[in-house]
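Hi V.,

Quick status before I head out on leave. The structure for the redesign project is tokenized and pasted below; the design run finished overnight.
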């Protein structure tokens, strides 16, 4: 996995994964996989359906929440719902670099009532600049 970073105790983020990588996730404690990439974003990226099939084979819950042009309220709500549905289990969210997944996770956590300062600290600790979403926190 490229660029695996812990956002908080439940959520980690990373760059693009492959169907082969998914098989290793349950051994790392992951119970939910969230794909924040739209299909066709880059040539050669794995299709969401292939990642979903690999998640199913690995016994992982899977959500496809593609973030296409910025993060809207529906994206944040879907992310918050997916995190809630993980029932406290470990979540791995991925996109091209992991940054988009970290930012939408941050907004979902803010929606769930986590303090702005805490979220900003978590983003910085994960190596993500909070300034693109600061006005939404």
């Amino acid at each position: 996995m490229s660029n695996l970073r812990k956002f908080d105790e439940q959520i980690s983020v990373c760059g693009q994964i492959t169907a082969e990588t998914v098989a290793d996730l349950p051994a790392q404690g992951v119970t939910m996989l969230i794909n924040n990439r739209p299909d066709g974003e880059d040539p050669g990226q794995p299709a969401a359906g292939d990642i979903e099939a690999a998640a199913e084979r690995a016994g992982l819950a899977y959500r496809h929440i593609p973030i296409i042009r910025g993060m809207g309220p529906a994206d944040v709500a879907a992310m918050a719902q997916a995190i809630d549905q993980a029932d406290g289990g470990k979540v791995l969210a991925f996109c091209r670099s992991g940054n988009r997944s970290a930012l939408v996770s941050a907004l979902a956590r803010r929606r769930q009532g986590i303090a702005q300062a805490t979220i900003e600290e978590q983003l910085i600790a994960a190596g993500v600049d909070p300034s693109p979403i600061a006005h939404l926190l």
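Above is the designed sequence. The mean pLDDT is 94.

G. will cover questions while I'm gone.

Best,
W.
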